[in-house]
Amino acid sequence: MDFMTALDIGASGLKAQRANLNVISMNMANMRTTKTMEGGPYRRKSVSFEATPVYSPFDTAMRDKLNQNLQGVKVLGVTADERPFKQVYDPHHPDANDQGYVFYPDINVVEEMTNMMNATRGYESNVQTITAVKQMFQRALQIGQG
After folding, report:
1. Main-chain phi, psi angles of 115, to 5 degrees
2. Is the pLDDT score of 67 beyond 80?
């Protein structure tokens, strides 16, 4: 594996974790949203990832056999959660139904914070990978300078 491949893999991880953090922050921001543009309360969203080859098919044909199985990560999609909404009795709320209940998204702060910490750790590990590759590249240049 060359330096650029390692950087590509780290960059794909950074991009995927950034998308994950964006969705988590969107969930946290909308945990009390009772009305959306589509109608109804906000639906919690989650990100799914997929392993993706780092090389293009041409690169794969030209590279040696050991590096052909290197894979990065990409965001496969953002899916809406199908959990039922929480019902809270609040007859004075403008979005309350006839019985006085308001429907809120079922977003657990502890779950979202755990997901955020997990995504942050993944982001940090990819930053460490890129930093290590940069240091190896700089040391290789120093060796070349004599």
Report:
1. -65, -35
2. no
